[in-house]
Amino acid sequence: MNPRGKPIRRPGGGERFFTIFVILLASGAFTNLMGGEDAAPGKGVVGFIMQAIWSLIYLATLILFHRGCKGFFAAVRGDKLLFLLVALTMVSAFWSDDPALTFRRSVALIGTTLFGVYFARRFSLSDQLRLLSRVFLVATILSIVFVAILPQYGLADPQFGYAWQGIYGHKNNLGSAMALGVVVFIFRAILDRPKSLKWWAATGLALLLLFMAHSSTGLAACLFTLLVFTLSPALRWTLRRAIPFFVGVAVVAAGAGLWAINHLAFVLSFVSRDPSFTGRTTVWIVSIAMIARHPWLGYGYSEFWPGYGSDIVSRLTGVAEMSHAHNAILNLWLDVGLVGVVIFILQYFKSLWRALVAVRNTRTIEWLWPLVFLLFLAAYGLVESVILQKNGMSWILFTAAVIQVSSRMRAPRLSSVPLSAGNRAAA
Length: 427
Fold this sequence. Notes:
Elements: H1 13-26, H2 44-68, H3 72-78, H4 80-91, H5 99-122, H6 125-149, H7 151-154, H8 171-191, H9 196-212, H10 216-231, H11 239-262, H12 264-269, H13 280-291, H14 308-317, H15 328-361, H16 369-380, H17 393-410, H18 421-426
Helix pairs in contact: 1-6, 2-5, 4-5, 4-15, 5-17, 6-8, 6-9, 8-9, 8-10, 10-16, 13-14, 13-15, 15-16, 15-17, 16-17
């Protein structure tokens, strides 16, 4: 029932199309048609058009939320830390060097967060996965079309070896989308067994695009997430079986990690990378040095990059138009300081614990999704900035995961497609 007592209708085709469009746009699709990911935001005709589109999206989300969702204030009470972090970005305008810019971008972040709440409240987890599978299927097909028909947009510059970037403004954006797309397609193949062949084929295409994008970050995050997905059924074992198993996994992982660190150059050579992680270490050093100047509250949300920070990195490395710190925590620290970092970490681990509890207390494949996504976000965030991402898919899905596992704690009994032995074998 909505606040006026009328029955809440299930989402129709138009509402689903709107959701698919917004998430596709939030994934960074079509930025190659707008000058690439480094194009100055908010400038020129293209910037004005994008601001207008996102403003309409926020307005439509408010209307749809009012008509079809309930429990917004319950979500705020259940996840105070999430909304406190978002509020901190707006407050940071008081100490930002460009308060107007910080305020505008924090408003965009609020709209992005609201859409994430709407996505979680309006659609069940299985519906979310079905919508996401369509988003990534569209991205996969259109990316192949762009490479084949519009190579001037679909292929990266020669400095990147003509790697594929598809409908995105950078090859790494395509790699990120396809890495997550592989995981979502596998979920969809298990959810819809009669049409599983279609989604396994989509998985193959997404893997092909991931390799053609030459995105080692996306590939590593994808492999890590698939490993988590493979091991996740053990989370439902009894503690007597699960604890020794995961202790053994942790020991093996720690040993492999130490070996990889001691042979880093050799390991990175397999993905054509060097120990500087393609110059990212310089960006990290600069970021840490600048954090030391304003450690507690940062420089103001979305103010340090690409302006002041980009200028410093450009002088040191000759690389211009740097747009973020290439590490989620460092970027967050620069934006809202140690206060914001602590709030995010507390919220992240609170939600991660809830996701683990949800997996143990259910027998459905879709309840693995919040856990898998949260771990994917952590893996990808090691070398990319994916926290507090205005108009960004990562923040939408993080918000949705936080709200979903929080709601699960208040409504523990849900029914859906069981994770049967056959489904586990398919996974």
